[in-house]
Amino acid sequence: MPAKGSWRSRSLLLPLLLAPVTQAIDLDLNSQESIASAASYAAWGMMTWYAGNETGQTPGKLLNTWWEGGAMFMALMEYYHFTGDATYNDEIIVGMEWQAGDGNYMPSNESNYIGNDDQMFWGLAAMTGAELAFPEDSNSYSWLTLAQGVFNTQIARWDTSACGGGMRWQIWTWEAGYTMKNAISNGGLFQLAARLARYTYNETYAEWATKIWNWSISTPLIDTETWEIGDSVSMGNNCSTVDSTRWSYNYGTFLSGAAFMYNYTNGSAEWLNVVNNLLNATIDLFIPTSYNSVLTEVSCEPTEICNRNEILFKGLVAGWLAFIALIVPSTYDTILPHLQRSAQGAAESCTGKGNDTCGIKWYTGDWDHEIGLEEQMSALNVFWANLINKDNASSYAPVTSHTGGNSTSDPSAGTGSGSSGTSSSTTTTITTGDKAGAGILTAVVAAGIIGSVYFTLSGN
Ligand SMILES: *[C@@H]1O[C@H](CO)[C@@H](O)[C@H](O)[C@H]1NC(C)=O
Ligand SMILES: *[C@@H]1O[C@H](CO)[C@@H](O)[C@H](O)[C@H]1NC(C)=O
Ligand SMILES: *[C@@H]1O[C@H](CO)[C@@H](O)[C@H](O)[C@H]1NC(C)=O
Ligand SMILES: *[C@@H]1O[C@H](CO)[C@@H](O)[C@H](O)[C@H]1NC(C)=O
Ligand SMILES: *[C@@H]1O[C@H](CO)[C@@H](O)[C@H](O)[C@H]1NC(C)=O
Ligand SMILES: *[C@@H]1O[C@H](CO)[C@@H](O)[C@H](O)[C@H]1NC(C)=O
Ligand SMILES: *[C@@H]1O[C@H](CO)[C@@H](O)[C@H](O)[C@H]1NC(C)=O
Ligand SMILES: *[C@@H]1O[C@H](CO)[C@@H](O)[C@H](O)[C@H]1NC(C)=O
Ligand SMILES: *[C@@H]1O[C@H](CO)[C@@H](O)[C@H](O)[C@H]1NC(C)=O
Ligand SMILES: *[C@@H]1O[C@H](CO)[C@@H](O)[C@H](O)[C@H]1NC(C)=O
Ligand SMILES: *[C@@H]1O[C@H](CO)[C@@H](O)[C@H](O)[C@H]1NC(C)=O
Questions:
Q1: pTM of the predicted structure, to 2 decimals
Q2: What is the CB neighbour count within 10 angstroms for residue 292?
Q3: Quick check: 431 pLDDT over 70?
Q4: Which Gene3D superfamilies does this chain map to (predicted)?
Q5: Which of 67, 170, 320, 347 is a plausible cystine mate for 25, CB 3.0–4.6 Å?
């Protein structure tokens, strides 16, 4: 293990972390210190994959992926929120601002290949910064402004040319997913709109959240009889059919958005019904007893075909579940045991390479010889998620502009030129190498709907 000498936080955990290095992460779920220590190991391992703070490197950029930078900083903000360990705070602020473009996460280096879902993960990270009152650089965009910038650029792309509405997956005509509407793009904007409504108390955001929800359930993407959520629908047949692939983050993002709407509405019965049904569906499908009631990406883990994106999905869900437990208190007792078993499984997987490297599968009780950024990030998320506590839930719940949040608002943020992603043309030559660094691509969808050629071009 690298030395832990870089700790310079107000954390009370220091003595424990200077203890002799153990062979594996010994997770004691009854000890906040033990959980925080596990999170610190996973965070450290994650950051060995990040070179953006080194000379000549680009802050916020990870190798062969752009969207995961947003997910990484989100995880690190949450880690700080629950542990007080500020080791990575400077890198978070620098990276988040560096990639911000004109305040809307359409940075010119990447913007030709960004999908709505890719941009959204940075927007959700910025929203997290506002809600956790994470330190800001007063000379740069505020966290809230950045989240509003993403919201504004995305609602301008709301597409009524087919299917009665909805967000396309991709922004640009030259991207193969341009003619598809998918769950994560719509569910991402739904979640962001709900969180903006709750933070700002501005009803316009809530109306958008409801509109996106209404549209989503009007298509086969979300079935409100079975509470199943598909991955994507095609504009070619006016979104009349849906695939049968099930990804945990599609469920998680709609569940999270519904939870924020529940909280925003001071406890609406309709949103609570959505939360309860989607929570049950998420647990039944992705935390099933057949996988030891541990979070599992069932569409790819058992068959060992997960791509980089897919390894991260369940980590995102773990983090969302933790906040759902805090803002929909009636779900707390249901959610916590699932997070606990998942963290225990993750810890058992973090025994690789003699240095606590984490694997993909959390349900096997052992390391599966996998190694990577996404493995570390997912483990980090499920560890900090276990630092929620019923007795002081409101101390860790996301704040609003009335309850301690002071991030500056700019309702028209991000609407400058070059950001709309409508029909403006470009003369840029698109190379295979560029595409390889672009957006989220779901392998099974790509193979099934687009064709395998595109998949080989655009892994991340
Ligand atoms: C763990 O060891 C492997 C193999 O030596 C190395 O690639 C990896 O960077 C190490 N991880 C950490 C967190 O030190
Ligand atoms: C970059 O951050 C890592 C921690 O993630 C730290 O160990 C390293 O010293 C930093 N590098 C620079 C050049 O600041
Ligand atoms: C754009 O890419 C160049 C070349 O890699 C890099 O130097 C620069 O920092 C990047 N800019 C942003 C905003 O990421
Ligand atoms: C496509 O679906 C929308 C929403 O259900 C509907 O309003 C519209 O009439 C449909 N268009 C066609 C051409 O079927
Ligand atoms: C959403 O659907 C409900 C029920 O059909 C309707 O009452 C409401 O006006 C719709 N809201 C928006 C913003 O479309
Ligand atoms: C929730 O309750 C607060 C405090 O009573 C009130 O100010 C706010 O308007 C309510 N929100 C909604 C959406 O009804
Ligand atoms: C969710 O599952 C729990 C436990 O099985 C059950 O008690 C509850 O009624 C379910 N809720 C809904 C809305 O189906
Ligand atoms: C909303 O979340 C807060 C935590 O910020 C919690 O105290 C409150 O009870 C939640 N509201 C409802 C209606 O559950
Ligand atoms: C919340 O409760 C946990 C467990 O008792 C404790 O470790 C933590 O310090 C508390 N945090 C706050 C802010 O009260
Ligand atoms: C928000 O509050 C923090 C902590 O009190 C403070 O450091 C920061 O300057 C405030 N930001 C704004 C925009 O007022
Ligand atoms: C509420 O949000 C909408 C949409 O961004 C914006 O047009 C409006 O100005 C906002 N209202 C206030 C009072 O901030």
A1: 0.91
A2: 16
A3: no
A4: 1.50.10.20
A5: 347
